[in-house]
From TrEMBL:
HAMAP family: UPF0434. It holds the Pfam family Trm112p. It comes from Ferrigenium kumadai. InterPro entries: Trm112-like. In the C-terminal section; belongs to the UPF0434 family. In the N-terminal section; belongs to the LpxK family. This is UPF0434 protein FGKAn22_09460. Signal peptide: none annotated.
Amino acid sequence: MDAKLLDILVCPLCKSPLIYHKAEKELICKADRLAFRIDDGIPVMLADEARKLTPEEAEKL
């Protein structure tokens, strides 16, 4: 992921900053407990396609 792109991307729902998880290829919103996938270097910022974090995953953030 491009560092400049990461600086400007925010959660589409709450506008909170996102955390980049390189190994999982996801951008994480702590506030909404959602993970947005990254396909071929392109973030999929659609709330309907976001994965809900488990309580255990959210606790680790």
